[in-house]
Amino acid sequence: MTRVAVFGMGYVGCVTAACLARDGHEIVGVDVDAAKVDRINRGDPPVSEPGLAEILGQVVKQGRLRATTNVNEAIDGTSLALIAVGTPSTDSGAANTEHVERVVQSIGSRLRAAPRDYTVVMRSTLLTGILEDRLVPILDAAAGPEARARIRVCNNPEFLRESSAIRDYDQPPFIVVGAQNAAEAQLVFDLYEGIEAERIVTTTRTAALVKYACNAFHALKVAFANEIGALAGSLAADGHEVMRLVCRDTKLNISTAYLRPGFAFGGSCLPKDLRALVRHAAESSLQLPLLPAVLASNECQLRRAVRLIEQSGKRRVGLVGLSFKANTDDLRESPQVMLAEILHGRGFELRIFDPNIQLTRLHGRNLAYVDQHLPHLAKLLIDSPEELCGHSELLVLGTDVADGFDWKGTSHARILDLRHDLAMPTVR
Ligand SMILES: NC(=O)c1ccc[n+]([C@@H]2O[C@H](COP(=O)([O-])OP(=O)(O)OC[C@H]3O[C@@H](n4cnc5c(N)ncnc54)[C@H](O)[C@@H]3O)[C@@H](O)[C@H]2O)c1
Q1: Residue 270 lies in a domain
Q2: Three-class DSSP category at 287
Q3: Which residue range forms the structural domain that includes residue 97?
């Protein structure tokens, strides 16, 4: 059993407080709104959520949940604070952090007076960096070094949805805790002992962004389904049936396929088919901003790679992989070809290794594509990985043809792995 102060008695705070109390913990809910506090103490939920009234009424009657406006009293009687105050949008679109700042400040000040072990868990949704760069310094200053040394700071993003919040609380997709180490994370997992879900410990930075990525993904899915629906309408097809069938493919569609950050997409189908949809939408005066934005986003990814290569300061570049993916010699709309073209055009001393590309065996559309887009291809292609290593100050690993060869062991060149590094803070 943990004694917990839950800050913020809104949708998330009320549900969390009631469920934690139901599961055997002793909870003090804290809110600046005295009317909400009064309602909770009467067992009357201040927010409407199916099933909440029953749980809240029961735990308040049993004395396992009470609420207060008195921060100090709440902190004194607990060993862990879950912060679930609001983080609404400001006019600029950024999250308003004034409420979380005030809570962290008051926790720090109170513990300064009487230092003891205490855990602060951020449940509110905050963009990566706000906890680490804004709130932790506030806590440091408020608590002072002695008390601060005994305060652990974690985050534990919330994935529940209003209207099914209690079910979501009881059956989360996973429980993610951002923490310094597994022991600190365990203090948070202990709160959810009876809940069957995978436990994941990661950094606070990653945990915070997982929450935003999930919500962005949900929003993207809704917008995608709506645009496909609108297209279907204009093409006399049944959009519901189209999306039902799209979702039936759990190998490539509703799956982890295509969901790793890497390099740009390309090949003979994805760009071409997207363009055809965009073209049809324009001809039909359909407003579908998402689909063309996908093509624009892909261009940005290509430019990001060029920028990283330029920023490396290296001029002798070896590109591994020229076709759009491993085990094909299809060069049509390969982003690696576009990258090679840009680098060559900007005066890099470029050499390319791709075991699937042998000029003598290219023919038809493929050869025409090479002629049109990379006429200097023959001069740039190199036959062996060793030769590429010998040439290069920077090795750019473009596709999975890079697998199966020890680039690090063979070369002193710096390595930029486009399949990985564009999603990392630093370049290897
Ligand atoms: N609502 C959701 O479905 C949902 C789901 C997941 C995550 N979240 C995130 O959880 C957080 C809370 O969302 P919510 O919808 O429950 O917010 P809410 O607006 O319903 O409730 C926030 C509560 O915090 C209180 N509060 C403000 N300042 C306070 C302070 N200094 N001390 C104590 N209480 C204070 C307010 O009076 C209010 O009762 C947000 O960051 C939100 O993005 C919300």
Answers
A1: no
A2: coil
A3: 3-202
